[in-house]
Amino acid sequence: MQKPDSQREKIIELLEHAGGATEDAVAQVSRETGVPEADIWGTGKFYSLIATPGKRVRICDGLTCQMAGADELAKKISDSGQAYERVSCLGQCDLAIATLTEDMKLKTYGKNETSVTPNDPNLAINLAGPVDLSYAALNKARQLGPAAVIEQLEASGLQGRGGAGFPAHIKWKSLRAQTETQRYVICNADEAEPGTFKDRETILRQPHKMLEGLAIAAAMIETTDIYIYIRGEYGHEYESINRAIEESGDQLSEFNFTVVRGHGAYICGEETALLESLEGKRGMPRLKPPFPTESGFRGKPSLIHNVETIACVPSIVHHGGQHFKDLGRTEAGSKLYCISGHINKPGVYELPLGVTLDELVAAAGGYLGTPLAFSPGGASSGFLPIEMRTLPLDYKNLADAGSMMGSSGVVVLNDTVDMAQAAGWQLEFFERESCGQCAPCRIGSRYLRRQNDDYLKHGDPIAFEHADDVAWEMEEGSICGLGMVAAKPLESAREHFPDHFKTK
Amino acid sequence: MNQSFQITLDGQTVTAHTGETVFDVAKREGVSIPSLCHDSRLEPAGACRVCLVEVAGQRRLQPGCAWVVTPDMQIETQTDRIQRHRTVLYNLYMADHEIDDAGLPVETGNENQLRKLCQSVPSMGLTPIQAPRSGRPLDDNPYIKFEPDLCILCARCTRYCDEVEAVNAITLANRGSETTIATAGQRSLMETTCELCGGCIDTCPTGALIEKKAPSNLVQLGEIESFRSTCNFCGVGCQLNLHVQNDRVVKVTSPPPGDTLNDGNLCIKGRFAYDFIHHQDRITEPLIRDKNGQLQPATWEQAIAATANGLNAVREKHGPDALGFISSSRCTGEENYLMQKLARAAFGTNNIHQCAAT
Amino acid sequence: MTNSIDEIRDTDMMFVIGSNTTEAHPIIAMEMKRARQRGAKLVVADPRKIWLAEMADLHLQLKPGTDVWLLSAMANVIISENLYDQAFIEKHTTDFDHVVEKVKSYTPEEAEKITGVPAEDIRTAARWYATTKHAGIYYTLGITEHTHGTDNVYCLANLVLMTGHLGVKSAGMNPLRGQNNVQGANDAGATPVYYPGYQKVTDVSVKSKFETAWGVGLSAHDGLNLNEMMKEMAKGNLKAVYVMGEDIVISEPNVTKVETGLNRCEFVVCQEIFHNETTRFADVILPGACFAEKDGVFTNSDRRIQRVRKAVDPPGKARPDWRILCDIARTSGYAMPNYLSTEEVFAEFASLTPQIKGISYQRLEATPAGLQWPCPDENHPGTPTLHLDGPMVGTAPFQAVDYRPSAELPDNDYPLVLSTGRTLYHYNSATQTRRDAGPATKQRGNFIEINLRDAKRLGIQHGNRVEVASRRGTICAEAWISPRVRVGCIWMPMHFAENRANLLTNDAGDSVTGTGEYKVCAVKVRAVEALPNAPANALLETR
């Protein structure tokens, strides 16, 4: 049993400083925190950045980086005698190929700079706009009071931008209805969905929009405790947040900001896994209910929002809900679309929610080569055929098409890509990032990856004999969203590109 | 606030109470819902996914062990959807489990509940996934063996170790298909906080954790004899099942949780310290000390007579209160009754006591 | 125990004193951990920082033997802050005013000086205990193994009574029994002052009841308790002993005196399953059966009678102990009935014992969780919690007691306080547990726990061989430097035959029960280069 005064929440960071999950480090952290050694070991071994000590280059094997030739780069690095490790998407798809050096510094091999939508003060986030340090929206929100602010939030139609699309105002209302007065606002900056880098740009270019949104949320649900959980691979972004907190001066002095770094686990972007990680545990999703709005961080009501969602809030407060709603086309608001892959100008474009792929690619300088397929919302959304280029990219239309809006990390694939190979890259990602808690996901993701490997090797579609059943069970039986979508890349590729899965 | 209300379970209207889970209601109503990761002593984990049921109004299947019922809730446990779910899930488990010649999950010295479940569905013959799950082959503890190829990662053992025994000696480690049950640094259990209570063995549903001491074929032998008894160590009074093979106690387990005061739990002494029963040092015949001070084997008649004579001689010479009878708090109630009766009725003294400070 | 073991999980506050529960009663400790994880408060009073203390809200690390001060100061707080249960006191108790008067001078500040426990902690513990409805006291030999053990128990009882924590679920006064059948042995009359069922041997009507039942005249005066027997034996007044299932040369305090006594005896009988230190003195050794080889009942800490069932035959010619006892009675001239089974013995025992009159083997078969006495008739369901409807008979008197120091306090010659106890891995004289690989590997031999400061002062390093000496004897052990013990105190387990802790302990007995003072005696410790020739231990060699 843990001692009453043990400091579980600190163990992951302490373990990192002590050199990773080694026996000595675990013993040391156990002495320092009073947390049992086994718990520290089990937790440390969960997070890929600390699980295995030792310096090495980390090479991204996300879809865009793979299409850009990450395998060849890995071979080059290996031939040069450097130790390397293949890691999941580093969130630099626009700059592919991405690596982290031995000192955990970002090094990219892409030709382009990141592009963003030019300055337009109408836009909710307006990445290229000037930085506003006035915190006028926060002050306005205070004057309006919670009821009026939540009314505007409802009028805005803001949906969760992390992928689930849950109406934001319902969470705020739920928080206010809790009898427990210790509440938390938590910002999910654990951006790790392959193809996605919008939160990165928001944090780098408009960090105060995020901070102000968090402050408004905290003020409206009557708390001062704000946590920001940012993925460990985002070094500059971590610094950007801390710098912004300093810059904000007295404006935010009443709030307690805690910025917590992740340590290499995609699953911690799932909100309850994120909570576990914040509490110093293995990032294994919790059963829901209870939902975090009732029982979240430390068992207390918690309002959790993605960076983009919360960064929309100042604009909503400032211009009113209707203004935000009108920024959208088929659904409410402007939306940060990430786009990478076989197009000319990869980047983050803030466009009306509901634009088509063609419009998005037009903003991004046009297609490269002959487009074949696209993945509209990260690995979780699977693949769609290019014939759907005129489908509005919004929550409803994509769901109806059997895909999802997800994190709107759009990747375009042209006809040089073998879709079985592309599916294999995504399957590998899910197998590696499965937390291992439930069998459908843990066993299913490995099973499908191995069957796909078998097909790639032997060209015999018998490998997929049971794929539909297993995929069905993963969706039905998994605990969390990761398992539910982990078969999607394979199943959607097999559905839309049957020619790529024939006997060879 | 405990209220009663109606819910519908497989089409039947049944009564439920505030705070109850689907499992609680189903158990009372005699509706069987399979499960692997559930243990009444532990917080529900919903991790094995075996117990998923359909709840009207819920898009997703929900774990019966954790799902709390509310008034008018409609639960289905036997639909085609659930049947398909169980079929594929059990087959996935089989793809991640050591399989025997019969094509079923291997059973060791302890029951494998997964094997029973798998017998209830058609085999899909999924290709084994060969998960790189590490064990601790060098763990030299004398009692507890971990077979990673039989583990389904339901985490009952680690949760038991944390929540019930609370020594936190074992943990889930690694991630995805590499997930395993580990100690800090994969050390021997002897070099951890483990107190060798063996509760992890007891709660393991598949026999991935087994007694090193017990014969490995106990289950296969079928009806081996088992005797319900009470532990002979401390004053808690834990209930035990003594498993007997060829007139030897070969394994000790607790009756299942729920019915007894030990609630399925035992400590190292109760579960494992039974070697003394058949130890070669046991005294196996009466002994009488001869004139030279050497102990010599004797018949029972001789020994009983020597005892009676020895005690009678002292009584006659020095009176009954020159005798002292020291009974034992280790012996049975009947024996203590007889010992004091012996002192009082047969020898006329109240000099009878035992080491019993509390 | 006034309450049941399974009630612990629902308690809201546990006051554990003089009990290393996780080691001595691991399964009860599991219930405590369960309550703790549920949020129940835990206060542990113990001179050592035992594991339970580490998980506690409050650890009162008192100096050994100062329990009366600690508990009286808690009573002082409860009374001076008006936290007592006036209604309960008026209805169910007498003599409260005696205690009120007595504890006036036992202020927390004064108590701090004697016990070493901060006054504020004493106040907090007292307030938590008094103001929580479901608050239970749990104690064991750390309370009773003192010359003032009975006083300690009175102090605890005073706290229970003044707060009305009796007749309430998950509360009460709960001694945790050290052995499987301590309760049952006492219930069965294996005590010098009581027949079965705590019926006084000096009560004429009781005596005549048993004379009728057993068909023989009986002694009218109290017998000697064990401590007294050992002393009379050493003096040469007790001439013969019949020892069944007990290794008195290990388990009694000041065993040198016990050995002297055994040597002086004219006749010694041992009924045992293993040779042990005591059998070395036996004229006759009768091989008995272990629990797996016979039928019967054990009565546990919460008064629960449960069946023991024969699973295997005794080895060789060994026989169930109950049959041996009957044969000896008959051969020595008493007409012991020819019982055909233990069921018949139990029936006779129950018929003479009001508390268990309603219990039979037949009922025990039908109730696998056992039956808890009192169970006065065959329709009675047993009594999990005592006094649920108020005290059963009359009123309970408060007992005002004064602090008396332990019999032997440290001085210049013997500057350290030794306490002894049990560990998780071994049991009593360890004749059973040392024959199993797990316990034998976890703890191979005797050790002491000693504080770093004392160790430094004495030039002792972790793992050193040390010699521990008291006025009564000298033994060797391995030194474990441990933050668990206070400065000036050492601790040692009682299990190891080759280095017996009870060569050191003081046989000064409690004034009422005669229980030896195992928890406090004065010793000195020094590092030694090599282990002197310890008595060869056949038990260890033969495995």
What distance lies between the first and last C-alpha atoms of chain A, to the nearest angstrom?
Answer: 57 Å
Head-to-tail CA distance between termini of chain C: 39 Å
Number of strands of chain C: 23
Of all chain pairs, the largest interface belongs to: B-C, 115 and 151 residues
| Strand-pairing-aware structural class of chain A | alpha/beta
Q: Name the beta content range of chain C.
A: 15-25%
Please work out how many helical segments of chain C DSSP would assign.
21
> How can the largest sheet of chain A be summarized?
6 strands, mixed
CATH class assignment of the largest domain in chain A: Alpha Beta
Count of spatially separate domains of chain C:
3
- Helix percent band of chain C: 25-40%
* Spatial order of strands in the largest sheet of chain A: 5-11-10-14-12-13
Label the overall shape of chain A: globular
State the CATH topology of the largest domain in chain A. Answer: Rossmann fold
Taking all Cα atoms into account, the compactness measure Rg of chain A is 22 Å
Low-confidence stretches of chain A: none
Q: Say what the CATH topology of the largest domain in chain C is.
A: Rossmann fold
Please tell me about this protein's structure.
The complex is a heterotrimer of chains A (504), B (358) and C (543). Chain A is α/β, with parallel strands linked by helices and 504 residues long. Chain A has 5 domains: 8-51; 57-108, Glutaredoxin (3-Layer(aba) Sandwich); 116-326, 3-Layer(aba) Sandwich (Rossmann fold), CATH 3.40.50.11540; 334-414, Ubiquitin-like (UB roll) (Roll); 419-501, NADH-ubiquinone oxidoreductase 51kDa subunit, iron-sulphur binding domain (de novo design (two linked rop proteins)). Helices cover 42% and strands 13% of the residues of chain A. Chain A starts with 10 loop residues before the first helix and ends in an 8-residue tail after the last helix. The mean pLDDT of chain A is 95. Chain B has 358 residues and is α+β, with helices and mostly antiparallel strands. Chain B folds into 3 domains: 4-78, Ubiquitin-like (UB roll) (Roll), CATH 3.10.20.740; 144-278, N-terminal domain of TfIIb (Single Sheet); 287-353, no CATH class. Helices cover 23% and strands 18% of the residues of chain B. Chain B has 8 helices and 16 strands. In chain B, the strands form 6 sheets. A 5-stranded mixed beta sheet of chain B has the order 2-1-5-3-4, covered by helices on one side. Chain B starts with a strand and ends in a 5-residue tail after the last strand. In chain C, helix 4 runs antiparallel to helix 7 and helix 4 (67-80) packs parallel to helix 10 (149-163). Chain C has 543 residues and is α/β, with parallel strands linked by helices. Chain C has 3 domains: 5-176, Dimethylsulfoxide Reductase, domain 2 (3-Layer(aba) Sandwich); 182-372, 3-Layer(aba) Sandwich (Rossmann fold), CATH 3.40.50; 416-541, Barwin-like endoglucanases (Beta Barrel). Chain C has a 6-stranded mixed β-barrel with strand order 16-20-17-19-18-23. The chains are: A alpha/beta (504), B alpha+beta (358), C alpha/beta (543). Chains B and C meet through strand 10, strand 11, helix 6, strand 13 and helix 7 of B and helix 2, helix 9, helix 11, helix 13 and strand 9 of C. Strand 13 of chain B pairs antiparallel with strand 11 of chain C, so a sheet runs across the interface.
